[in-house]
Automatic annotation (TrEMBL):
GO cellular component, one term: plasma membrane
Protein topology in the membrane: Multi-pass membrane protein
Keyword Transmembrane helix belongs to the record: yes
Membrane-traversing stretches: 44-69, 76-97, 117-137
Keyword Acetylation listed: no
Similarity field: Belongs to the PMP-22/EMP/MP20 family.
Principal location class: membrane
Keywords: Membrane, Transmembrane, Transmembrane helix
Name listed for the protein in its UniProt record: Peripheral myelin protein 22
Xref: Pfam families: PMP22_Claudin
Domain of life: Eukaryota
Subcellular location, record wording: Membrane
Length: 165
């Protein structure tokens, strides 16, 4: 089995691997791939993962918009909400795949989960954490504007409030 197949696969075995969009069999050194059967659960996982990526891209877009147009002291609510939705979508897809993939796994071949499957489980808490950070993060001014005192430490002046001092 090639390195690319192991990296992209959600389930891997000695002579076959399963992805979100296709299955591959590697008998006698050759590789034969075909689209996954159209079942309700795999299409749900595919759609949910696509939605997760879209929500993540939207959160990046909202972050850039809020970075330039949000008032000083405002919070990045839209960015955080969309990032949290993205993380929950990844969680949903990974749970559905975990529960339903047992019907795909060939016990005689000792198949296991691949790198992409594990990456989905790592992406969930990281996206959730970043969404929570965005919600609690406030926009502050790091550099003084024209006419402001450059010795005013805006970042440090908020530290007692952030730490509840």
């Amino acid at each position: 089995m090639s390195h690319d197949n192991i990296v992209l696969a959600w389930t891997v075995g000695e002579s076959r691997s399963s992805y979100l969009w296709f299955h591959c069999h590697t008998p006698n050194g050759g590789s034969f791939c075909k689209p996954v059967p159209t079942g309700g659960w795999i299409q749900a996982v595919q759609g949910i993962m696509v939605l997760s990526v879209l929500y993540c891209i939207l959160s990046l877009f909202f972050f850039l918009c809020q970075l330039f147009y949000l008032q000083k002291g405002g919070r990045f609510f839209f960015t955080g909400i969309f990032q949290i939705i993205s993380s929950l979508l990844v969680l949903s897809a990974a749970v559905i795949y975990t529960v339903q993939s047992e019907y795909w796994v060939n016990e005689e071949e000792e198949e296991g989960f691949g790198f992409s499957y594990m990456l989905a489980w790592v992406a969930f808490p990281l996206a959730l954490l970043s969404g929570l950070v965005y919600i609690f993060m406030r926009k502050v001014q790091a550099f003084p504007s024209k006419g402001e005192d450059p010795t005013d430490k805006v970042m440090l002046s908020h530290a007692p409030q952030l730490l509840n001092w």
